[in-house]
């Protein structure tokens, strides 16, 4: 605990300097038209906060009344993306992400994703875009033992994936920037809960078309903004994940855009991609909203002893409830997958 407190303290001056400039520097100008169809008929869908890290700011998700696309507006600027991603997947958050990435639930999802292409192709080379620490590639290799898995990510996690043998080749940087050097190399490109994080999803689809060989397959999974769970749970629904999720794309919109970019959609699935954590994540979001803040480098100072103790006691009291909800999520998963409660969807498209 002391080592973690020291790491937090060393980061505090950096965050303080950034916050001194004001939160407005973290946002681009507000859009007046839908980024998907260019319609000007927009409405506010929800306002929420950062429930995962607790960083300051209020985030607005707007919806297009014509095509149904949902997007963060105003969107994070490049500076804002760096601020809100820092210490989430790497740095202070690296150990937590590693535990989640190797959990039994994550492994079951990885196996489902890997099996999705078994009847369609036997890939020689597979590029996993947004691979993080490469845990999917490790699990997918069991289903596709003859496939060379490569990882691509903006963060340093992809280099750790290479170091730990999870990927055979690592590419660090923007997918759209790296697409031309990688042109025509891959039989499969996968994007698992990646597209919603990007500033320009259609450019990501174009990049996938570039790096795929003719007849290659693109495998996408994203949160389903049309899920009934999103309506029932409101701003507490986990997949809103503000401020990281910049775009939440209805299934029909994504399929239409894939066709425009030179793909043929060969399969869609709203059942198997469901992640059974809706009740648990909603409760965790509510809990973080009402509890005293834990120590974090974006706070001006470390919380006092009373605040720390009250938080620890509340978390201990809430733990059995969260475990119960986690079990309930698992119990309800078969029902959710057969209804519109499913919170994610999958698209498989072939490069023409």
CATH superfamily (homologous) name of one domain:
Vaccinia Virus protein VP39
Give the overall pLDDT as a whole number.
Answer: 96
Could you give the order of the helices and strands? HEEEHHHEHEHEHEHEHEHEHHE
Care to count the β-strands? 11
- Determine the strand fraction and express it as a percent band: 15-25%
* Structural class determined from secondary elements: alpha/beta
Helix content: 25-40%
Count the DSSP helices. Answer: 12
The CATH architecture classification of one domain is 3-Layer(aba) Sandwich
Strand order of the largest sheet: 6-5-4-7-8-11-10
Outline type: globular
Would you tell me which CATH topology of one domain applies? Answer: Rossmann fold
User: How would you sum up the major sheet?
Assistant: 7 strands, mixed
CATH class of one domain: Alpha Beta
Keywords: Membrane, Methyltransferase, Transferase, Transmembrane, Transmembrane helix
Protein name: Class I SAM-dependent methyltransferase
InterPro entries: SAM-dependent_MTases_sf
GO molecular function: methyltransferase activity
